[in-house]
Amino acid sequence: MTEYPSEAEIQTLIEQIDERPWSVDGYEFAGGSEESFTVTLTLDWVGGDAMSGTEMLEERADLNKIKSIVTALESEHDEGAPIETILDRAEAEGIDREIAEDAIDTFRRQGDVYEPTTDHLRLV
């Protein structure tokens, strides 16, 4: 007999998915075995226009640049990388400030960074 996830586990999954550029409209279970089963989620895209492959690669490159900036600044500052300095350096490297701010918010939500002191970040 397959043990399906609890309602709390399903809600946790839905909350994690809802943080992305789509939301969960519903779900249903299909048969399975003791090792696995199928859950079908119905998703709605809420993140605006879909990105092309090139745009996704560019976004990933920007995220990696910002993480590199955080890493460099962490070594220069005992209290962590100052957010304003991160944003300034991102702009100097050609990344729009708003995109850099969004990236920092994404890093926070995903647990990639923490804030050891106010307005300073460290990578996890």
General description of the model:
A three-stranded antiparallel sheet has the order 3-5-4. The chain has two domains: 7-45, no CATH class; 53-123, Orthogonal Bundle (Arc Repressor Mutant, subunit A), CATH 1.10.10. The protein is 48% helix and 23% strand. It has helices at 7-18, 53-76, 83-92, 97-110; strands spanning 22-32, 37-45, 81-82, 113-114, 120-123. With 124 residues, the protein is an alpha+beta fold.
Topology:
Blueprint: H1 7-18, E1 22-32, E2 37-45, H2 53-76, E3 81-82, H3 83-92, H4 97-110, E4 113-114, E5 120-123
Antiparallel strand pairs: 1-2, 3-5, 4-5
Helix pairs in contact: 2-3
In short:
This protein has 124 residues and is an alpha+beta fold. The chain has helices spanning 7-18, 53-76, 83-92, 97-110, and strands at 22-32, 37-45, 81-82, 113-114, 120-123. The strands form 2 sheets. The protein has a 3-stranded antiparallel sheet with strand order 3-5-4. A two-stranded antiparallel sheet has the order 1-2.
Properties at a glance:
124 residues, 4 helices, alpha+beta, 5 strands, single chain, Arc Repressor Mutant, subunit A
